[in-house]
Amino acid sequence: MDTCTGLTPPQRDLVHHWLPRAELVTDHSWGLVATTVLELSGPDGHVIVKAGGAEDHHIAREIAAHRRWLLPLASSGHAPQMVIADEETKLLVTDHLPGRLVEGDPSQDAPETYRQAGILLSRFHGQHAESSTTWDDQLAAHARRWLAGPHRIDPASVRALRREIDAWPTGSTVDLVPTHGDWQPRNWLIDDGTVRIIDFGRTDLRPAVTDFARLARQDFSRDPWLEAAFLDGYGSDPREPGLWRRTLLGEAIGTAGWAHRVGSESFEKLGLRQIDQLLR
């Protein structure tokens, strides 16, 4: 544990207190965000430790998600269960789920993977719903903030995006449900044919369609059978055309702006390409 440079001294001390005999198995930290993800094992069990940096706000959301929204998935072994957490120190410990990441695995091309993921998402979304008349305004404000910040979206596209955003509806009623925020193969595990879900640091109340956006631009676009299997598992298609387009535009703008900010050229190209496709 003393070699884990991603932890602050208070975080390291608390992990030592909680798991005094644990040893590091793997550092799963992504490197693009201020979150350290460690796999530890010892006499007290096999766990995942997540620690947030100074600018991190995902740990608090993930802790809240475990306390409020994860029971339908965690109780069946399809999501991790929280062991212990401390919001002030930005530290979360969950049990370790067996499996390997779907992203980059042959299971990423298997319709059955998406059918199961659709079933799990429907279960997650279905536990709560509430109405909002401010969602469209929030989405527009979020997109405008990204466009006002540093990015490499070309000027003509920026003008077209601003015109379209200015024409978006305001005050319309939208249903919000518990959403994962990054529902895609890089946050899915496959274990002996069973799909499990990880990383709930972006969980929040949003329209259901927001959990379809990243799949649509990546996996659905390369194989329509994966989309059909996902919808079969989910049980319906919530993508009302107007809200769906606004969601995709907001996602593309945010991806291009965020990736430019953190220096991820591959993600930036993905966002820029999606903007170009949507405007064309």
UniProtKB/TrEMBL annotation:
Identify the residues that the record assigns to the Aminoglycoside phosphotransferase domain, covering every copy: 55-240
Q: Name one Pfam family in it.
A: APH
Task: Determine the domain of life of the protein's source.
Answer: Bacteria
- Per its UniProt record, what InterPro entries does this chain match? Aminoglycoside_PTrfase, Kinase-like_dom_sf
Instruction: Please state what the protein is called.
Output: Aminoglycoside phosphotransferase domain-containing protein
